[in-house]
Amino acid sequence: MRCLAVLTVRNEGAFLLEWLAHHRAVGFTDFLVFSNDCQDGTDAILDRLEEMGQITHIRNDGPYDQGGIQFTAYKAADKMEIVKQADWILTLDVDEFVNIHVGDRTLPALFDALPEAHAITLTWRLFGCAGQARFKDEPVTQTFLRAAPVKMYWPWRSAMFKTLYRNDGTYRKMGVHRPRSPDPDRVEAARWFDGEGRELDAKFRTQRIFSNYGRSNYGLVQLNHYPLGAMESYILKAARGRAVHSDHMLGVDYWVERNFNQEEDRSILDMSDRMQAELTPLKADPELARLHEAAVTWRRDKFEELMMLEPYRALFGRLLMTPPTRALPMNEARFLVRYANLAREMSAGGEENA
């Protein structure tokens, strides 16, 4: 069975080797990685990994279509042989780590638990910075262990998912959160299951990008999402801009909606030994080791450079002053959800009357 992970990256060379080692240990067999506009040597690391037979690397330096950088990459990927040969596909970012809780914690164990699934939703569990200000060249999965509560009621992005799906022709294009372009003759028969093993309703086949609020979605599998990192890393992320809209600088609003630290979640540490077994030979390659160190140095130097600029210095100060985000209780969340639903109904009514 061939399981393909598709990744898009820019200036994230310091995190690449851990990400690759972890997902090899989880059971992914193939990796298709698109890089764009890198200054830290991410593209050179990917070139070396391709030479070693670890990945397939494509430079995605533009021009980009209206969908932006990621959709341009996915559009190119849809035509590639490595994609056509895959049995299962998952699109990921470098701050997302698949965390399986069933069997031996690998993809085959997950598939054995859900043998009838055409698609499995991997719901984000958001991991906050836990007050860590400075970037350290240490595994992300061993550094950030404080996360959002299992049951979240707000915001909607706390329940967003990525989709692990069978590449059997039911969906003909990949997307950021879910496969796209369903085959009308096949999609009605597609069976979607969530991370608890519950079968999902028909809307998930074509529409949904987030799981239902107020319940656990992680019994069999979750997607550990580390969108912030340390405060220092967030300054670099802010300078890079949003993944889909790279010209939009990130601010405190993005931080507050993701900096949840209420519960400790150490479950991914069960994969540490297997991840390290994959990572050690990668770091033993002299060229990869050199390129990794260069990416780490670039990251530290870039932070020093940004701190000489008022917008980033001010942002770092705000991060230091901002307490961890409070998870909203059900009654407060319901108040917000009510207005969100009313606004959606009004918008739908306006479209019908236009």
TrEMBL record:
GO terms for molecular function: glycosyltransferase activity. InterPro entries: Nucleotide-diphossugar_trans. It is a single-pass membrane protein. This is Glycosyl transferase family 2. Keywords: Membrane, Transferase, Transmembrane, Transmembrane helix. It comes from Pseudooceanicola atlanticus. It comes from the Bacteria. GO terms for cellular component: cytoplasm; membrane. It is found in: Membrane.
